[in-house]
């Protein structure tokens, strides 16, 4: 059993704050500052460039990849960390479509994160007019998987509503029709159990700054299944994905397995923060996390619906059909969220009218949920969202 009192103690949460935005940026692990300081002052400071060899910097992307791999059901040696999520989406998608050279359609859904769709559009602009990005409603993805499709690009958990795709069923159907799958786990990794190996996924990508708590700008990860690891060719063929980076060949030779999906120099300082965050996960069972997040989110939904008139549940009613977040629609959602944050409960907002709340059991408990509901009740019933300062839009919502 996971000791959630121990994991809660491992995070810095400011006094007077209830943090319901781990689905956007996880809080600071208490050991992260010390680990980053060690890398800066001792490793970088004392070893200088020797740190790449003496301190194991060059191997960090694969080491951290294996630690994340445990949390997403990946085979050892098939996840690597580095670059941003958008870069990893582009890499996975480009490699996947090359594996289906006789097909021209990328299938995604209208609930997907826009950056994923932008990456697909950019790739298509390079591939030529014969290629197409086909978007369907989330509930229509299964019916749209046919022999015409080259690749599916699906985010398992919808960033706005928390709606959860059935990864096993969609992957099974895709494989039956010869379709290569790319899964975005941005709102899955660290939130719900994932079994990439068990479902037979081809590619997966994800970020580490949400539920994995790696910090702002923490690097992304990419998974390539054993079936494709030696065949998948990265369109972004960076020097660290080369078979022998320090041979400085003028021509590219892909490295072994998933290491070829490395692009640029790894961000060692940021990876040090991620490493500290992953230490917390060593004693965590993801099924425990899932069970507890459902309990907390159900408690929140019941409280909001009982005490906050005007808020309408936008997430699936059945907790099994959503990830670890809940969203409510409210006409004045942006201003209401700003008022809520000013009163010590931090969630976020997604246009046009959606208030989002994330439930990370590593640092949340029932008392937090009850207090958050009570604060939201005051914001709504006292119409605190009408305060002019809460109406002004900020750069990040």
- If helices are DSSP runs of H or I spanning 4 or more residues, what is the number of helices? 14
Reported for the largest beta sheet, the result is: 7 strands, mixed
Query: Structural class, please?
Result: alpha/beta
Beta-strand proportion: 5-15%
SSE order, as H and E? Answer: HEEEHHHEHEHEHEHEHEEHHEEHEEEHH
Integer count of domains: 2
Measured as a percent range, the helix fraction is 25-40%
What's the CATH H-level superfamily name of the largest domain?
A: Type I PLP-dependent aspartate aminotransferase-like (Major domain)
Describe this structure in words.
- The protein has 397 residues and is an alpha/beta fold.
- It has two domains: 4-30 and 285-391, Alpha-Beta Complex (Aspartate Aminotransferase, domain 1), CATH 3.90.1150; 32-281, Aspartate Aminotransferase, domain 2, CATH 3.40.640.10.
- The chain is 38% helix and 14% strand.
- The chain has 14 helices and 15 strands.
- It has helices spanning 4-9, 32-47, 51-54, 60-71, 85-98, 114-127, 141-144, 167-176, 196-199, 268-281, 286-307, 333-342, 366-381, 388-391; strands at 11-12, 18-19, 28-29, 79-81, 105-109, 132-136, 149-155, 180-184, 203-206, 221-224, 312-313, 325-329, 345-346, 348-350, 354-358.
- The chain has a seven-stranded mixed beta sheet with strand order 4-10-9-8-7-5-6, sandwiched between helices. A four-stranded antiparallel beta sheet has the order 11-12-15-14, with helices on one face. A two-stranded antiparallel sheet has the order 1-3.
- Strand 5, helix 6 (114-127) and strand 6 form a beta-alpha-beta unit.
- Helix 2 (32-47) runs antiparallel to helix 10 (268-281).
- The longest helix is centred in the last third of the chain and has 22 residues, at 286-307.
- The mean pLDDT is 96.
